[in-house]
């Protein structure tokens, strides 16, 4: 396990050495503050649009950080040929996969904490109330969702030839699931057979990432989600993480590493 | 051959770019047929900005329902009876028509709206059932001053499409009736009127501001009469004219004239309203009462 932690530590260091996170944080901050300074009919109590915008930016930024970080991990090691001394340590390929995943996931968690801290300060300064448990649930669920995305991207980084292609395809898939994943069963029912069955199979196979998007509940001050359901969603996400990591390992195990 | 210096070439290119930009800008303003294409955003988005304006207007309705809103997969059409857009008009209209006080059992249009917004049927599978714990499933409306939250979206919608008249009337309604911002409502309506000088809806709403909040009978009458004239000019020839606006304008004019003791004019307006009213017998009864008053007066 120490090997896995050591590998993940390298990935976390990479996050704070690179500029991506800082650029996205500054952009999120600037856009949110600029929107917050707008005056709508001399009413200073308006806050929903600001929460909506800030959370949207956080979601976009976190997704970009997760996909960007995970997509280049294994291809970079191969290109720079550092994968050979790494595997000669000895480190097993499963440990490489697990270490890379853990590093990316923890790095995204750190980034999320910073983003949400900014969100809490901005909304709290306007609303003067602090539903911290709701914010914690939103952060936690988003982090679980990012775990699934990172595992998916790591798997993609083994089967696709270039990190850019992998990142693009994964972003399209993730955004597609977030937008229409919830409605695929309704779409399926309107289709003739065998398309109906096919879409229904896809509906049951895909990870339902849209469950983890609880922005509306936060923006419109709805009640807490039951912890039991949060726990079940976490378990569901963990199953998909393990599944993607397992198939990534299967593909990586037989992969020729020379470029 | 003389070799060109890179800084000079760069300077030349910059000068050309600047010249082209200044000469193109004049034409860019005329690309859209709409006269208000004067901001960078409007020039950049072109007529596509109307699409964004519609989106922001819908977003205001989503906010009004605290996130509970059908997606394109839930229904083929957007809700037509949202209280944010039309419920208040029906309410005022009905009140003016029936002259009754609204009680707790009075729910005009609410049943229809509830029915329309009941788009979440029984879950079809365990994924849908479980997923409902993570999004808004209660149909509620913003209240107690929280209606203010729809205003940024309406402001943005108006910025992007100044010709969308409904944006001004809806925002002005909430500003003046629920948020106590009569001055802001009037200012926004005037902004809308500058962009749509012949809009009978905006003129009618301005008349309401003058009559309800300033007790300015003369200006309210003038505004409503101009609104009625524009309605006739724009709608009377149409196969499907906007009859609800005609009913609102004439009913309000009738109430104003009745309050001022001009019963003859009130009767004239009520007769027009009766022709387009869903409850003509109620208006006929009021016409008869006014005719009786007119007959008894010296």
For the structure shown, list the relevant keywords:
heterodimer; A: 259 residues; mainly alpha; 11 helices; B: 298 residues; Serine Threonine Protein Phosphatase 5, Tetratricopeptide repeat; 2 domains; 0% strand; flat
Q: Could you walk me through the main structural features you see in this protein, from its secondary elements to its overall organization?
A:
The complex is a heterodimer of chains A (259) and B (298). Chain A has one domain (2-253). Chain A is globular and about 65 Å long. The longest helix of chain A is centred in the middle third of the chain and has 35 residues, at 93-127. By secondary structure, chain A is an all-alpha fold. Chain A has helices at 2-17, 20-36, 48-79, 83-87, 93-127, 132-159, 163-180, 184-189, 195-205, 215-219, 227-253. Chain B has 298 residues and is an all-alpha fold. Chain B has two domains: 40-98 and 108-164, no CATH class; 198-298, Tetratricopeptide repeat domain (Serine Threonine Protein Phosphatase 5, Tetratricopeptide repeat). Chain B has helices spanning 6-31, 40-45, 49-64, 83-98, 110-117, 126-131, 151-160, 165-177, 182-195, 200-214, 217-235, 243-259, 263-276, 280-296. The radius of gyration of chain B is 25 Å and the shape is flat. Chain B starts with 5 loop residues before the first helix and ends with a helix.
Question: Could you give a quick summary of the protein structure above?
Answer:
By secondary structure, chain A is mainly α. Chain A has helices at residues 2-17, 20-36, 48-79, 83-87, 93-127, 132-159, 163-180, 184-189, 195-205, 215-219, 227-253. Chain A is 77% helix and 0% strand.
> What characteristic shape of chain B results from the CA principal axes?
flat
Percent range for helical residues of chain B?
Answer: 55-70%
What is the assembly state of the chains in this entry? heterodimer
The domain tally of chain A reads 1
Order of helices and strands of chain A: HHHHHHHHHHH
Overall geometric form of chain A: globular
> Could you state the order of secondary-structure elements of chain B as H and E?
HHHHHHHHHHHHHH
Low-confidence stretches of chain A: none
Secondary structure category of chain A: mainly alpha
Record field, number of beta strands of chain A = 0
SS-derived structural category of chain B: mainly alpha
Alpha-carbon Rg of chain B, integer: 25 Å
Mean pLDDT rating of chain B: 81
Radius of gyration of chain A: 20 Å
Rounded mean pLDDT of chain A is 90
What is the straight-line distance between the termini of chain B? 105 Å
DSSP summary, beta strand count of chain B:
0
> Can you tell me the number of structural domains of chain B?
2
